[in-house]
Amino acid sequence: MISELKALFEYYEKEKGIDREKMVDALQSALLAASKRSIGPARELRIEIDPEKGAIKAYAKLLAVEGKPQNPFEELSIKNARKLKPDAQIGDEIDIEVTPKDFGRIAAQTAKQTWMQRLREAEKANLYEEFKDRTGDVVNGTIRRFDKSDVVVDLGKFEGVMTSRERVPTEDYTSGDRMRFYVKAVEKSTSRGPEIILSRSHPNFVRRLFEFEVSEISDRTVEIVSIAREAGYRTKVAVNSADDKVDPVGACVGLRGARVKNIVRELNNEKVDIIRWSKDVSEFTKEALKPIKILSIHVDEEHKRVHLTVSEEELSKAIGRKGQNARLTSRLIGYDLVIEKDEHAVKVFEGHVDVAVHQLAKSLDVSEDVARKLVDNGIPDLSVLATADAEDLAEMLDGDLELARAIVDKVAAKTSGSAAV
């Protein structure tokens, strides 16, 4: 028992960093509870442990009484008291060792279980003290096991937990994988004691990776102004420098893209856009949406909203798949984003169509409905109409072959008349 306790003291002190005095206190409390069953309800029972040797002794304070003790757990005859303390008087409290011969065997199991519980609590207290100021750090860890949807990570002396909310949906996690994690929080009051909450999906994980890779960010020559992230898919990072001689985007990209490539590799090929920040919201929005060409832009400062128009061809790109590009840009600039296609070009085109319909109807002496059917089918004027035959026109005119032939004749007459002139 003694050698076993000594070995446990040394192990938890060296490997777990738990103070030996705390271990002694925990064990004394545990043994005291166990001793009451093996020794009995002795008066003022206490346990003494030698922290260096691991020796255990139990003592009680018994009252010296005259004659035969009525309660052997609380009293001691004056005769026996004077064997231990020659000058003992009736009513004196006498320290007497009450360690049973089989105390180690009987109490060890119960004591060990209780002690381990106390040690776990002490470990958790140490965990909180060590990590409470590390919120926001990036740590290395090894994935050890899974607790339902949570990932338990070995951080060395301690374990951290990455909940399902902090996982990256596109990443697969396997026991034994060594990865970097962002310390999102160290929570003290939880049902399972203090916990280190880890994350790989938090936007600040990307921020810290840039700080590690880009010296200009770590020395504050370049500043990360804002980050918008959809973990596993895409991140937009806005950067700025107060030094006009420093290109903040170039500094983050690095020579031949080396710096940003290291970050993308750590993020398992998540797309990272590095954007030059501007205090002008219009310019900042244009930078955030490059290479999309913005045709018009209006900033509503009162409602924190940006209205912009793009061509119909670029509308889907500006919005992005499932709205991702617009959503990330909105978070990055801090304004609601309203993207619409440019209606001006449509109106101009429709105006040209109306003119063509009117001129064709007048030239052929037909209704504008008939002329519009021809224009809608790619025949805007007489020169194009002259190349079509009656059967083709009839299909455009809902099968009206008679009307089609009449139009062909009119066109022939007009074109031949023009040629004669």
From TrEMBL:
Residues 136-201 form the S1 motif domain. Keywords: Cytoplasm, RNA-binding, Transcription, Transcription antitermination, Transcription regulation, Transcription termination. It is found in: Cytoplasm. CDD domains: KH-II_NusA_rpt1, KH-II_NusA_rpt2, S1_NusA. One of its GO terms (biological process) is DNA-templated transcription termination. It comes from Phragmitibacter flavus. The lineage of its organism: Bacteria, Pseudomonadati, Verrucomicrobiota, Verrucomicrobiia, Verrucomicrobiales. SUPFAM superfamilies: Nucleic acid-binding proteins, Prokaryotic type KH domain (KH-domain type II), Transcription factor NusA, N-terminal domain. This is Transcription termination/antitermination protein NusA. It comes from the Bacteria. Its main location: cytoplasm. Monomer. Binds directly to the core enzyme of the DNA-dependent RNA polymerase and to nascent RNA. Participates in both transcription termination and antitermination. InterPro entries: KH_dom-like_a/b, KH_NusA_2nd, KH_sf_prok-type, NA-bd_OB-fold, NusA_N_sf, S1_domain, TF_NusA, TF_NusA_bacterial. Pfam families: KH_NusA_1st, KH_NusA_2nd, NusA_N. Belongs to the NusA family. One of its GO terms (molecular function) is DNA-binding transcription factor activity. One of its GO terms (cellular component) is cytosol.
